[in-house]
Design a protein that fits this description.
This protein is mainly α and about 150 residues long. It folds into two domains: about 40-95, no CATH class; about 95-145, Up-down Bundle (Methane Monooxygenase Hydroxylase, Chain G, domain 1), CATH 1.20.58. About 65% of the residues lie in helices and about 0% in strands. The chain has helices at about 5-10, 15-20, 45-60, 65-75, 80-90, 95-110, 115-125, 130-145. α4 (about 65-75) packs antiparallel against α5 (about 80-90), α6 packs antiparallel against α7 and α7 (about 115-125) runs antiparallel to α8 (about 130-145). About 30% of the residues are buried.
Length: about 150
């Protein structure tokens, strides 16, 4: 297996709905809040988050650990933590359009539109990005350009 292989097997596309809010119940971008929806963070979620964070300290370059932490971080509203974990994935392999899409969406949700646009433009122009990823990136870019 190549260096890139192990973390692709993690199923990064499985976390796409977490970040992009795709699916039958998804609202149009204009109806979505830039800020993450309020989540009642339970004690159990906090324990999971803390354990996942500690695991990233033990395994800072393990893709599965980083993806797991990013998923939990989004659920508890720590978008910056999720961004940090996904940025580390790009240090492992910088040519990952799905990771860049996730980062673009997270920055969009934070209201950091220039950072979002940078990642989304890379997805839109990537030869490796799927048609669906390119279309989703284009939707967010269009939303950023609205007055």
């Amino acid at each position: 297996m190549t260096r890139k292989g192990p973390w692709r097997a993690v199923g990064l596309l499985a976390i796409l709905p977490l970040f992009c809010e795709v699916g039958a119940g998804a609202q149009p971008l204009s109806a979505q809040s830039q800020a993450p929806a309020p989540v009642a963070v339970t004690d159990a979620m906090r324990v999971l988050y803390d354990a996942a964070f500690q695991e990233t300290l033990r395994k800072p370059a393990d893709p599965a650990t980083l993806v797991g932490f990013a998923e939990i971080a989004v659920k508890v509203g720590d978008l910056e933590g999720a961004i940090s974990a996904l940025d580390r994935l790009l240090l492992i392999d910088g040519d990952q359009p799905d990771v860049k899409l996730e980062l673009g969406v997270l920055y969009f949700r934070l209201g950091s539109f220039e950072a979002a646009r940078s990642y989304l433009d890379e997805v839109r122009t990537s030869a490796r990005a799927s048609t669906a990823a390119k279309a989703r990136a284009a939707e967010y870019i269009k939303e950023i350009k609205r007055p």
